[in-house]
Amino acid sequence: MTAATRLQTVAAIAAWLALGLGAAASALAPWVAVAAALLTALLWTPWSRVARCVPLLVGLTCIGQALSGVSVVYASAMGVLVLLHVVLADLAADATGASASAVGRALRALAPAVAAGAAAAVVLLLGLTATTALPDVWNAALRLAAPLVLLTAALLALGLASRRAAWSYLPQRGALSAVTRRYLSRAREER
Amino acid sequence: MTTDMTPARTEALTWVPSPLTRRLATLAFSALALAAAAANPSLVALAAPLLVGVAVLLRQPRAGAVDVHSAAGVGRSFEHEDVALTATATTDCPAGSVRLMLRPEQEVATVADTVGTALGSAAQTTWTVRPRRWGHWLAGSITVAVCSQGRGWSAEVTVPGPGLTVFPPLASFGPVPRPPWLRARLGPHVSRAAGSGIEFAGTRDHLPGEPVRRVNWRVSSRRGRLMVNEYAQERAADVVVLIDSSSDTGPPGRTTVDLSVRGATAVAHGYLQQADRVGLVAFGSTLRWLTPGSGTRHLYLVLEALLQARQARTYVDPSLDRIPMAVLPHGALVVCFSPLVDDTILEAIRDLRQRGHPVVTVDVLPAATPDLHAVDDDLALRIWRLERDAVRSSLRRLGVSVVDNDDLLPGSLHWLAGTPTLSARHS
């Protein structure tokens, strides 16, 4: 078994687990999950264009299952499994003919993202568990503040990711650009 | 075997979110939108790992530039001959994967898969391509797609591939017809005149001063007087190929210039194989010539000159007067490939006949082309055919052999042997 086939197998298993969890816990008909699970067989085919559509299909099926009513614990586990599936399927599509050591190096580069995703799921679960124990007043306040906090966090994350420093912090007082400083000093001299 | 090396190109990379990032983001934002619409916290829990995963993937380092190097296995090849192309791409910092794709030009066909992918910061791929037509071509463009180390970003650059020099095919030949006039120079043709060759021609009486080595002792003892062997004179032929590229009509791959160049290659290869001298005059585009020479090196010089036939159009009137005397040796056989639609080439053929050259003209314009069948006016078509017949007749009256393009047989020079010019023996 080549390294690419191993990756495809692990990716398919992750997809089956996610779909299985969804089928077990959701009100959606189980045949939807079975159909999606059967389509993961395309991962092993040489048609890379088709194989690259499988993760999207699996993810959307899981979203459908979560929408029809799945507990938060199950949904978090499904999220982590979908993340693992999408990442591994993408790597497998490029790993045809690659050596095991090259695949190992690529996996090491992907591991932080999957680990961070799993950690985020755990933190979210703990957070939700903690908030359910709060009094109703606190919950109402949290419900109002949560979208703002999430929006700010998303903007900060995007700013950090795109390496645009201006997004990650607010401009400090007096921190003017070089052009503005030159213009102001010239205006002061002329005055 | 030569290698056509192209210098390495360093291309700056412009990064955009990779398909993996877009896929994860699509799923996450779909889940979040549905969560907001349906007030369902489970969907937020499902989206959270995907969003955090995307954020971490986008934080991975990215390379600034990629070095691309491509080379053709052989610098020179022939039509429909497989050529190996090798391409290498290396990024200046660790990368997730490097993919090389070849987009071949129209004149080049690919034999196998055109995509090569490698995980890591370097990729090397070998493609096999098959040129369809003679000429100077680019093998195609090479697209390098690079993924950042965490596969969160992707970038794509396209560079031109290596150049290919494609010669017309050299077919195998049967006997090559002997030209009517031969030069008094050592060559492959045995003359009727006695001389210093190695072919036995007969015996004669010994003359004082002749070397004893030539004495035929067996005949001498029979005749009772000294007899010596006589040998035939060996001679070489001069052949000049004249191609007319002033007009180029016909379907791609079967144009008049294509047919002229392939025919000229066959003639040059046939005569050079048997150690005759071959020269070239290219008419129509810029006037080019090549002094007659022999050997494999000269064959490639002829082929290189023929490749220029399709290039460098000019309005300068070509004339044989501008050609040095050495290019058209006295009595050299001239084989002319022309569509016979331009007066200049007809004048040149008349000029060659007046100089005493035996001339064979190949009419490379097919008599029954699909374009001609499409002509509605039958009268115009008949007049055109009559005019062409008149041109051919006038050439025949001058002693020029005119050969139809349809009579050309690929891989042999039998068509040349059957012409009246070469059937008559002069020496």
Task: Describe the protein.
The complex is a heterodimer of chains A (191) and B (427). Chain A is an all-alpha fold. Chain A is built from nine helices and no strands. Chain B has ten helices and 22 strands. In chain B, strands 1, 2, 4, 6, 8 and 10 form a six-stranded antiparallel β-sheet that branches. In chain B, strands 19-18-17-20-21-22 form a six-stranded mixed β-sheet, sandwiched between helices. In chain B, α4 (256-273) links the parallel β17 and β18. In chain B, α4 (256-273) packs antiparallel against α5. Classes of the chains: A mainly alpha (191), B alpha+beta (427). Chains A and B meet through α4, α5, α6 and α7 of A and α1, α2 and β9 of B.
Amino- and carboxy-terminal Cα gap of chain B: 42 Å
Low-confidence stretches of chain B: none
Q: What value does the average pLDDT of chain A take?
A: 82
Helix percentage of chain A: over 70%
How many DSSP E strands of chain B?
Answer: 22
Radius of gyration of chain A: 24 Å
Q: What multimeric state do the chains show?
A: heterodimer
Q: How large is the share of residues in beta strands of chain A?
A: under 5%
Q: Write down the overall geometry of chain B.
A: elongated
* Total DSSP E strands of chain A: 0
Helix content of chain B: 25-40%
Largest sheet of chain A: none
Parts with pLDDT < 50 across at least 5 consecutive residues of chain A = 164-171
Radius of gyration of chain B: 33 Å
- Average per-residue pLDDT of chain B, rounded, comes to 84
Protein chains sharing the most extensive interface? A-B, 54 and 44 residues
Shape of chain A: flat
Specify the structural class of chain B.
Answer: alpha+beta
